[in-house]
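Entry:
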Amino acid sequence: MDKEKCVVCGDDFDEYSGDTTEQMCLTCILKRDDPECLKMANEPDDYVSPIKERIAEVNPDALFADGLDGAILGIVERFAMPPVALYDRAKCVEILMKQDMTFEEAEEFFEYNVTGSWVGDGTPCFAILIENNFSNSSS
């Protein structure tokens, strides 16, 4: 069984021990999802810093969305382009709503100021995560 290196803590982990699409060990995934372990918005964050450092190692020209560190998922690779930061779109909107915006205001701000801003090949990507409720069994 291959070992992966966690992009957050640097520990080795089995490829099946956690969410390997994000290259994170199970401990760091659980910390990320625990609101007590992850500070949001502009506060310094021991969890986010190693991820941003890892992204910068992979692509020194990668850019980050200001104030949305709490929504970083990891790194995304694109065809014929350098890897960049990947954010959870829904978490970005949640962070904006914590800045005294309504859902509609946060959505509009996000669409216009974040996803509407192309600043070169280092521009981050934003994922819309879809829960998989489908089963593999045939009816």
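The chain has two domains: 1-37, 40-127.
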